[in-house]
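Whiteboard transcription, Tuesday session. T.W. wrote the structure tokens on the left side:
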């Protein structure tokens, strides 16, 4: 009989990922998630006790003093000037920017190179690493470069399967999963964040799954879009009751255009507060309404005990990247 890892197209040992569809099917068409019936896998190892880099320690201390603001950084893929321009706009309006997968392309500069471009502007990068495109040796190389650069933190994710993205022709790697990558990054002395999707199937087990990532090495949790204060509060409280005693950074969807609204509706397992999207799109000026709505939602989420920051998550679409960076900066400044 096949193991859960053998049945999973991402070869995950510590699943399920956040891509499970509401009916329990996998993001890869024609398959069912083996972890839906098999249960959340428990972390079997020990989290490394390696000391965290000075930049990571400074960020944890900052979260203890006040809520932190993390933003996406809208850029044109493979364009160093675009990265620098958006970083300069966001400098002073965010504590760090999350460098994840680009919303419009699978091919992009390597994580450590993008981090270097951002650091040149004086802005602190928080760097996402996925297991889709790199084996463990390549991931170790990226982690070594990121530690040398002195980045604030590393965000460990398994990653979407290529079949569901812009490059279905690319072969999947998935040598590690997010929990294993978190453990590896923690052992290297980096401050590690992990993500959890409270609205993904199986919903009742999502707090327990976060606990396994914390045991593996996660020190910060990014909460994917789960609605408003009540829903996020329930998830955070459930995770804390199990022992996931980490600071939570809650996602705030930033929608300031029709293009962005169309893009964000493609996000898997995303839940927005009731009327959030409609209120923006039906407003005389969707841009102003989107900024106002994001600020109001952010204030609401920061009232949740355990939430120590916001992730201003931009629906990038194909619109003007610098204009969207300006929108993010305006929202970020409202909290700093």
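and on the right, the sequence the group agreed on:
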């Amino acid at each position: 009989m096949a193991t859960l890892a053998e049945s999973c197209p991402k070869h995950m040992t510590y699943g399920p990922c956040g891509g499970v569809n509401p009916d329990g099917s996998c993001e890869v068409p024609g398959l069912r998630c083996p972890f839906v019936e098999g249960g959340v896998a428990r972390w079997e190892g020990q989290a490394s006790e390696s000391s965290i880099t000075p930049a990571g320690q400074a960020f944890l201390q900052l979260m203890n003093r006040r809520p932190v603001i993390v933003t996406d950084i809208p850029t044109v893929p493979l364009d160093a000037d675009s990265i620098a321009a958006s970083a300069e706009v966001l400098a002073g309006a965010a504590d760090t920017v999350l460098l994840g997968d680009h919303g419009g392309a699978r091919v992009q500069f390597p994580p450590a190179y993008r981090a270097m471009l951002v650091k040149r502007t004086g802005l602190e990068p928080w760097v996402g690493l996925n297991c889709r495109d790199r084996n463990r040796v390549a991931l170790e190389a990226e982690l070594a470069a990121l530690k040398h650069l002195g980045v604030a933190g590393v965000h460990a994710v398994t990653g979407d399967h290529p079949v569901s993205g812009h490059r279905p022709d690319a072969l999947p790697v998935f040598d590690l999963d997010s929990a294993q990558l978190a453990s590896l990054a923690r052992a290297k002395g980096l401050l590690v964040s992990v993500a959890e999707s409270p609205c993904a199937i199986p919903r009742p087990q999502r707090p327990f799954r976060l606990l396994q990532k914390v045991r593996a090495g996660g020190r910060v949790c990014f909460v994917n879009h789960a609605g408003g204060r009540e829903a996020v509060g329930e998830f955070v409280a459930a995770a804390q009751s199990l022992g996931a005693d980490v600071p939570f950074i809650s996602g705030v969807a930033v929608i300031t255009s029709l293009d962005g609204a169309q893009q964000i509706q493609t996000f898997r397992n995303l839940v927005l507060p009731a009327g959030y999207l409609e209120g923006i799109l039906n407003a005389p000026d969707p841009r102003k309404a989107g900024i106002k709505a994001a600020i109001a939602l952010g204030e609401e989420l920061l009232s949740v005990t355990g939430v120590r920051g916001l992730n201003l998550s931009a629906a990038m679409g194909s619109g003007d990247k610098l204009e969207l960076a300006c929108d993010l900066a305006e929202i970020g400044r409202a909290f700093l």
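Someone added at the bottom: The CA atoms of residues 265 and 335 lie 26 Å apart.
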